[in-house]
Amino acid sequence: MRKLIGTLVIIITLYSACKPNGPATLPILGNRQPVIKTVNGKTVTDTVYSTIPDFKFVNQYADTITGKSLNGKIYVADFFFTTCPSICPVMHRNMLNVYKEFKADDNFRIISHTIDPKYDTVPVLKKYADKMGISGNTWWLLHGTKDETYQIAKNYLVSVQEKNPQGEYIHDGYFILVDKQKRLRGTYDGTDPAEITKLIADIKTLKAEPDEVVAK
């Protein structure tokens, strides 16, 4: 999975380097499929990009959150667990910078899926949010079944695993940027402050894009 993410980063870099001068546009990641259709009597080829499927989870306020809750919004997704002793605290300290930058923007969200739903109950997630200084609806900490969470991680191109023989959960430390059409638009190492700076800049770029933008 890390090789896949690395390949995507290389593609993004090459895309940015080769793109002609003009308004900044982020690439669309993930699978794409050509679709042939007829428009005004002419046969044209359109492109259908993979999107995040609908889901149903519960946030730290015990509110039900579905894909519809994110309609028309740009958001960043990640996967964590509250007892993580390694990368999660670093990731979420960095994510606080994103949260503070866009806290007042109702068209932006952060969603963090716990990969340890047995321990990370809704009250535990609320306590974690309070300790982090998270309030309001900009940043949702989401609880769902293990199967639902692990399945949707695949749609974000993120790898998560159950406890290994040492009793540890394993997951990628990436933040995933998703546009209003629920298409993947960027991946960022959540432990790297420089990547967080880039993520914030890319969110602003995405906010400036027309909703109907099609990246090559």
Give the structure's gist in a few sentences:
The protein has 216 residues and is an alpha+beta fold. It has helices at residues 2-18, 87-102, 122-132, 146-155, 193-208, and strands at residues 32-39, 42-49, 56-58, 64-66, 74-80, 108-114, 139-142, 160-161, 170-171, 174-178, 184-189.
Give the topology.
Layout: H1 2-18, E1 32-39, E2 42-49, E3 56-58, E4 64-66, E5 74-80, H2 87-102, E6 108-114, H3 122-132, E7 139-142, H4 146-155, E8 160-161, E9 170-171, E10 174-178, E11 184-189, H5 193-208
Parallel strand pairs: 5-6, 6-7
Antiparallel strand pairs: 1-2, 3-4, 5-10, 8-9, 10-11
Tell me what the structure shows:
A hairpin with a 5-residue loop joins strand 10 and strand 11. The protein is α+β, with helices and mostly antiparallel strands and 216 residues long. The two termini are 23 Å apart. Helix 2 packs parallel to helix 5 (193-208). The chain has helices at residues 2-18, 87-102, 122-132, 146-155, 193-208, and strands at 32-39, 42-49, 56-58, 64-66, 74-80, 108-114, 139-142, 160-161, 170-171, 174-178, 184-189. The protein has one domain (2-208): Glutaredoxin, CATH 3.40.30.
The CATH first-level class comes to Alpha Beta
Q: Which strand order do you get reading across the main beta sheet?
A: 7-6-5-10-11
CATH-scheme architecture: 3-Layer(aba) Sandwich
List how many beta strands DSSP finds: 11
Unreliable sequence segments? 1-20
Q: Sheet with the most strands?
A: 5 strands, mixed
The radius of gyration over CA amounts to: 18 Å
- Structural class, from secondary structure content? alpha+beta
Q: How many DSSP H or I helices?
A: 5
Query: Could you estimate the helical fraction of the residues in percent?
Result: 25-40%
Shape estimate: globular
